[in-house]
């Protein structure tokens, strides 16, 4: 009984178990009074051991007065010769805290103490929970990776159309003012036809780097089609600033891109709208107006920026049934 305490008739400790002595932080408990070691939580108003009822076992719930404290439960039995009380204690459901706080091991408990079985169960549960957490973390990483792949254009590493749609919906829902800029590469088909798809892929990758370089860290840049790109720029609604951004992009795109020793020459046509032109902003309307503004740039000679939206010219000119 390593958590035993044997009291004399005067309430002084005659014998104390090794684990109890350790928990109370003493070399020895012999001679110390029960009331100096424990506070009785239940039964209430029990009084000193000298006045405890002797006719039947007494169930106790105790708090130790040492630091750190420990909660103990047990049964006190009056000795047959009337010389005192034998109290056999345990930690009950607080055993896990006691093991942690007092660095206890299985040798600190009686072989018949169910606390040891509880510790095994707690340890097994902890191991199972840790494995479950590891599995959940792996699943979460796999889910995040799969979602990232689903939102990423594999050739350029930019977002794809789905990512842009999400960013557009999020910006509108958050109520942030923003600009939407659509870029279509001019003369890209000529590169593909003359130098092959390898050259075309290389050009698209260079274009992706240019767009990243010319936009801010928080801007969403996506490849939404074969040679079409889109930028969502938060808080950029000034037309002069958008014009400057568009001209910088066009200037960069018109620099020759070398592929296998051959220059690939392209340009870019841009269409842009700003959310503050719409009350309230509607994603489908904004995308249509942005696309229409892009074709105004195409029809106007390419390599330029056009703005769309309510009150601005966005409808493409129809010639012979084609744009």
How does this structure look, described?
The chain contains nine helices and 13 strands. The chain is an alpha+beta fold. It folds into two domains: 112 residues, Beta-Lactamase, CATH 3.30.450.260; 147 residues, Alpha-Beta Plaits. Strands 2-1-6-5-4-3 form a six-stranded antiparallel β-sheet. Helix 6 packs antiparallel against helix 7. The longest helix has 37 residues.
Q: How many structurally independent domains? A: 2
Q: Can you tell me the residue ranges where pLDDT is under 50 for at least 5 consecutive residues?
A: 314-323
The whole-number mean of residue pLDDT values reads: 87
Order of SSEs: EEHHEEEEHHHEHHEEHEEEHE
CATH homologous superfamily descriptor of the largest domain: Reverse transcriptase/Diguanylate cyclase domain
Give the helix/strand layout.
Elements: E1 4-8, E2 13-16, H1 18-23, H2 34-37, E3 38-42, E4 58-64, E5 71-78, E6 84-90, H3 95-102, H4 114-150, H5 161-174, E7 178-186, H6 188-195, H7 197-214, E8 220-223, E9 228-234, H8 239-253, E10 257-259, E11 262-264, E12 267-274, H9 283-299, E13 305-307
Parallel strand pairs: 12-13
Antiparallel strand pairs: 1-2, 1-6, 3-4, 4-5, 5-6, 7-9, 7-12, 8-9, 10-11
Helix pairs in contact: 6-7, 7-8
